[in-house]
Fold this sequence. Notes:
Strand order of the largest sheet: 3-2-1-4-5-6-7
Structural class: alpha/beta
Number of helices: 14
Helix content: 40-55%
Distance between the termini: 16 Å
Number of strands: 13
Largest sheet: 7 strands, parallel
Strand content: 15-25%
Mean pLDDT: 93
Amino acid sequence: MMTIQPLNILFVADYFPALENGGTERQMYNLISGLVDAGHRVKLIVFRDTLFTKEQNTLPVKVQTLNLPKIFSVNALRRAQEIRNIVKDDKIDIVHVFFNDAAIFTPFALAGTKVPVITSRRDMGIWYTSLYLFCLFFANKFVSAVVCNSDAVAGLTCRKELLPNRKANVIYNGISDFCEKSDQNPFPFALDRPVIGLVANISPVKNMVDFINAAAVLNTSGYNFNYVIVGGTVDEYYFGTLKQMIQENELKNNFFFIGSSSCPRKIMSHFSMGVLTSKSEGLSNTLMEYFAAKLPVICTDTGGNPELVRHEKTGLLYQSGDSSALADCIIRLYNDSQLSQYLSKTAYSFVRTMTMGKMIQRHEKLYSSLLQ
């Protein structure tokens, strides 16, 4: 086994929002915490402050804010020099970058320093624009490696950004042991019928229209289920559209929005099955959480989802937009307890190999390999 020497690691990010806002934040939080626990010296720079970094920061590292609202601005050169000074003064060995603006700005800022710069890609390019892709093409020339959280993300990154395959490194997300359970009913209804659950923030890319349309099909067919969405509202207009659909399909007594949760595990432990309807996913932490909760899972056949959900092995896949197929999958799992048990057991065994420790170790090995 390779012996990893303690390193000085600088993380750079656009910002660091609250942990319940998304999976990337949790993965980054756990990576930083794990590296500190492993004896590395870690520092974090953010371009912009959030409530988390100003008031609720529980990270075990110092956080420095650059106050850089826009990377194309008159003070950008000054902020670039600040980053270069930090790298020099703190004798930084490795710089690891998260989020979009930082992925463009940081490689240019550190060009010529000879310090390896790593950037991250964690979705299927939903943020790409022609300008971003143009800038990334040139920024990537000063990048030593790009960490992608799935093969699908790596393939897309190489194609869209014209990134050499040798620079793309796939490191799957890690998951901690699933121990957060509660005997208390977290729902505003009795647990006297199956609960079909979906954990995701409310935005168009999560395509919750499929979930509501499937519920309408099932309700018309005589299946009396409760449907739950756990997640914060990112798009208020979209949220209003979903509520209107629920009203029009007479699902008001069956459909519930729980809101964001700092510990969704306590809620999903009461699900009968877990559903994910996203139009686009890099590698879904929600699916991994479903697996760890020993739930049978249904999700869209998109992005990195099939790398986790292998159809009829670790879950069921359906094509995004085909709400009738989603309804059929829900009926199939409800009526076939043997299949449900097989899928949840196989998925649980699979996700047990995707530990947080393994994710951290793979980053350590990548860092060390770039310094040899």
